[in-house]
Structure prediction request, 323 residues.
Amino acid sequence: MPKKILVTGAAGFLGSHLCDALLADGCTVVGVDNLCTGNPVNLRHLAGESRFSLIEQDICHPFDPGKVDFVFNFASPASPVDYARLGVETLLVGSAGTFNTLDIARKYSAGYLHASTSECYGDPEVHPQVETYWGNVNPIGLRSVYDEAKRFSEASVMAYHRYYGVKTHLVRIFNTYGPRLQPNDGRVISNFMIQALQGEPLTIYGDGSQTRSFCYVSDLIDGIVRLSRSQEHLPVNIGNPDEWTILECAQEVLSVTGSKSEIVLKPLPQDDPTRRRPDITKARTILGWDPKITLRQGLEESLDYFKASVAKASSLTAPEKVL
Ligand code: UDP
Prediction:
């Protein structure tokens, strides 16, 4: 049955892909975004879509979109460069914003899925990370505005589930990439792709031995939609368990782009996690989900997007981390 869905952060990288998937499934989608990091260009292709509308709204202020059947809460600055720049806004959206969207779900007896993050695990002492691990987070460090906002949101979501019976879901999202990743938000894949395509040196922070596990966006969205239709209320990791050092990731980008760029080493930002890899046993078991796209395939799929981004802004400089 077609449903009416609220997606906050709809103009963002993940939010916009989520809107596409829901519309393709026959849903009507109300997107909300205050455009502080989201980009309306990500939704431009939906201009003629009668089942989609966008409200420009900061979810930190209460609002009422009318009756909805489901809420996906994806609004937050999400890249380390963005949340360092918008620290207080990040804390507010992860507290007041989460409460306001939970109140909408409660009012309309709607389902609710919150976009949480592997950052809840901080610099993990348990590897790979299982959902039952409580994490190793610096509560006052430069990343704390994001990490603690997401942890507070998880507590809020669980409280609305326990005390008010809201049908909630928590996804812990691991590093994700693909088309619409903002070229200037400082993430590793966008930085490396742009640097490689411009013939600039690839900037590795630290010695490049830290690891990440990269999930292609279509795999991630598939896992999230499955979770939203499940009965699971506790957190579920969605990510690709294929783990890469950042140096290996740089080499893969050079190979996919055919670039001759050099690699340069830069200082490692504060509290940069040394390793990250999801244990996805739970998603496999309860959602029947498994990522399908390898890093190489995903980078190839993303190549045209990054080429177009570079062509549009001929003097694009990949930002360095400000943490
Ligand atoms: N990184 C890097 N060079 C860059 C951007 C990032 O070496 O130009 C590193 C960063 O220090 C981290 C990893 O790549 O260890 C992933 O960074 P990103 O900002 O993409 O996400 P994070 O997983 O840190 O939130």
